[in-house]
């Protein structure tokens, strides 16, 4: 599913795309999954979407980023996503960071930091590892309050149910 191209300055575009990722995170939360959403954009068009679904799919790799990468690769007909930007509501883990690098994503924009498993600077910074052959440009903190609040509320509700 794609959207019409939009021509916005980068900050406005980043906010717009993160809002789409937040909507996917909300869908994941409604399904009982940790609320993380991700989209991939190429030339102003959303070409990949994903929400967390490891619980429902019984698949530990079913993170939002992986789902969005798979969707985008299928839509492009290529596993290399050169020139694409990935927007995700939570800092990617090591698995997702590796997949992002293998896909050759040019730009990563994420919302909330992940102090437990974040692999873009919070715990480790795989994106800055000089020995790796691809380096994605990383921008953090886009709609961080909104992204973090959604995660905090989800885990608060989960603790109340126990």
Automatic annotation (TrEMBL):
<feature type="binding site">
    <location>
        <position position="63"/>
    </location>
    <ligand>
        <name>Zn(2+)</name>
    </ligand>
</feature>
<dbReference type="Pfam" id="PF00383">
    <property type="entry name" value="dCMP_cyt_deam_1"/>
</dbReference>
<dbReference type="InterPro" id="IPR002125">
    <property type="entry name" value="CMP_dCMP_dom"/>
</dbReference>
<comment type="similarity">
    <text>Belongs to the cytidine and deoxycytidylate deaminase family. ADAT2 subfamily.</text>
</comment>
<keyword id="KW-0819">tRNA processing</keyword>
<comment type="subunit">
    <text>Homodimer.</text>
</comment>
<dbReference type="InterPro" id="IPR028883">
    <property type="entry name" value="tRNA_aden_deaminase"/>
</dbReference>
<protein>
    <recommendedName>
        <fullName>tRNA-specific adenosine deaminase</fullName>
        <ecNumber>3.5.4.33</ecNumber>
    </recommendedName>
</protein>
<comment type="function">
    <text>Catalyzes the deamination of adenosine to inosine at the wobble position 34 of tRNA(Arg2).</text>
</comment>
<feature type="binding site">
    <location>
        <position position="96"/>
    </location>
    <ligand>
        <name>Zn(2+)</name>
    </ligand>
</feature>
<keyword id="KW-0862">Zinc</keyword>
<dbReference type="InterPro" id="IPR016192">
    <property type="entry name" value="APOBEC/CMP_deaminase_Zn-bd"/>
</dbReference>
<dbReference type="GO" id="GO:0008270">
    <property type="term" value="F:zinc ion binding"/>
</dbReference>
<feature type="binding site">
    <location>
        <position position="93"/>
    </location>
    <ligand>
        <name>Zn(2+)</name>
    </ligand>
</feature>
<feature type="active site" description="Proton donor">
    <location>
        <position position="65"/>
    </location>
</feature>
<dbReference type="InterPro" id="IPR016193">
    <property type="entry name" value="Cytidine_deaminase-like"/>
</dbReference>
<dbReference type="GO" id="GO:0002100">
    <property type="term" value="P:tRNA wobble adenosine to inosine editing"/>
</dbReference>
<keyword id="KW-0479">Metal-binding</keyword>
<keyword id="KW-0378">Hydrolase</keyword>
<dbReference type="GO" id="GO:0052717">
    <property type="term" value="F:tRNA-specific adenosine-34 deaminase activity"/>
</dbReference>
<feature type="domain" description="CMP/dCMP-type deaminase">
    <location>
        <begin position="12"/>
        <end position="123"/>
    </location>
</feature>
């Amino acid at each position: 599913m794609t959207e019409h191209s939009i021509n916005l300055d980068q900050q406005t575009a980043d906010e717009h795309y993160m809002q789409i990722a937040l909507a996917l995170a909300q869908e994941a939360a409604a399904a009982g999954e940790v609320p993380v959403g991700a989209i991939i954009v190429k030339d102003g068009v959303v070409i990949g979407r994903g929400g967390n679904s490891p619980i429902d799919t019984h698949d530990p790799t079913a993170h939002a980023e992986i789902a969005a990468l798979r969707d985008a690769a299928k839509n492009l007909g290529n596993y290399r996503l050169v020139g694409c930007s990935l927007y995700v509501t939570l800092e990617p883990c090591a698995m997702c960071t590796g997949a992002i690098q293998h896909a050759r994503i040019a730009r990563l924009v994420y919302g909330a930091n992940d102090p437990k498993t974040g692999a873009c600077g919070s715990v480790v910074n795989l994106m800055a590892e000089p020995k790796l052959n691809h380096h994605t440009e990383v921008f953090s903190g886009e709609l961080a309050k909104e992204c973090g609040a959604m995660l905090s509320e989800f885990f608060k509700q989960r603790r109340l149910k126990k």
